[in-house]
């Protein structure tokens, strides 16, 4: 577009020169005389040239502004692509049993539950052999877990979400006579690299699961810090 503006200006100058040459030819044919039409033509050309120059200047300003906006947009696109491409991806989800059915527990001590059936494990932060998620990226994370009780007449189920051995939140069912209760809980927590998160079955408690996958443990990275 800058080239177009320059071409317009050059063409206008050429017209003015051509008109001036024509007027000079008239003067040479009639030496000593100056007609009103010649003077008026020169005045008109000067006014036209001024108007064209003003328009070209405006066009140049607009073109410069558009070029700056285009450059800024290009930078923003590159920054966005860099953020998307460079952002770590961490997410996992798993169910308690990979086959069969039955109770887990009771156990004499608090024990991390090993969720064997892995649905997803992007980033490989979750270890199904231990049931523990280990943060490889510092950031803010979301975790959710669910629990199905022991389906006995006397409820006896308690599980807790743990971070580095510290209880964060729990789901429990230890009273009542109904035998098909379940619940879930969740938390959003900051993690440093190396922090461990897991679901713990409390001592002497029991949970039940089968192919319906009632007991699950999931988590994912919300954003880095």
What are the main properties of this structure?
225 residues; alpha+beta; 6-stranded antiparallel β-sheet; 5-stranded antiparallel β-sheet; 2 helices; 35% helix; 33% strand; rod-shaped
Task: Characterize the structure shown.
This protein has 225 residues and is an alpha+beta fold. The chain contains 2 helices and 13 strands, in the order ααβββββββββββββ. Strands 3, 5, 6, 8, 9 and 11 form a 6-stranded antiparallel sheet that branches. Helix 1 runs antiparallel to helix 2.
Radius of gyration: 40 Å
Helix count from the secondary structure assignment: 2
Mean pLDDT: 83
Which structural class fits the helix and strand makeup? alpha+beta
- Give the strand tally: 13
Main beta-sheet strand count, sense and barrel state: 6 strands, antiparallel
Instruction: Estimate the global geometry from the Cα principal axes.
Output: rod-shaped
Share in helix:
25-40%
Q: How much strand content do the residues show?
A: 25-35%
* End-to-end Cα distance: 45 Å
Low-confidence parts lasting 5 or more residues at pLDDT below 50? 26-30
Q: Write the element-wise H/E pattern from the N-terminal end onward.
A: HHEEEEEEEEEEEEE
């Amino acid at each position: 577009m800058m080239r177009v503006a320059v071409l317009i200006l050059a063409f206008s100058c050429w017209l003015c020169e051509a008109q001036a040459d024509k007027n000079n030819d008239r003067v040479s044919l009639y030496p000593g005389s100056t007609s009103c039409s010649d003077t008026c033509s020169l005045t008109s050309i000067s006014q036209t040239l001024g108007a064209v120059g003003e328009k070209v200047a405006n066009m140049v300003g607009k073109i410069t502004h558009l070029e700056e906006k285009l450059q800024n947009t290009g930078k923003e696109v590159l920054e966005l692509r860099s953020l998307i491409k460079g952002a770590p991806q961490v997410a996992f989800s798993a169910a308690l049993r990979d086959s069969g059915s039955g109770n887990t527990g009771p156990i004499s001590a608090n024990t991390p539950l090993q969720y064997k059936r892995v649905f997803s494990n992007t980033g490989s932060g979750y270890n199904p052999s231990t049931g523990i998620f280990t943060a490889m990226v510092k950031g803010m994370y979301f975790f959710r877990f669910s629990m199905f009780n022991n389906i006995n007449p006397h409820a006896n189920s308690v599980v807790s979400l743990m971070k580095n051995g510290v209880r964060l939140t729990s789901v429990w069912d230890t009273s009542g006579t109904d035998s098909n209760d379940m619940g879930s809980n969740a938390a959003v927590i900051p993690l440093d690299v190396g922090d461990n998160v897991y679901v713990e079955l409390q001592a002497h408690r029991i949970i039940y699961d089968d192919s319906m996958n009632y007991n699950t443990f999931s988590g994912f990275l919300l954003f880095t810090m």
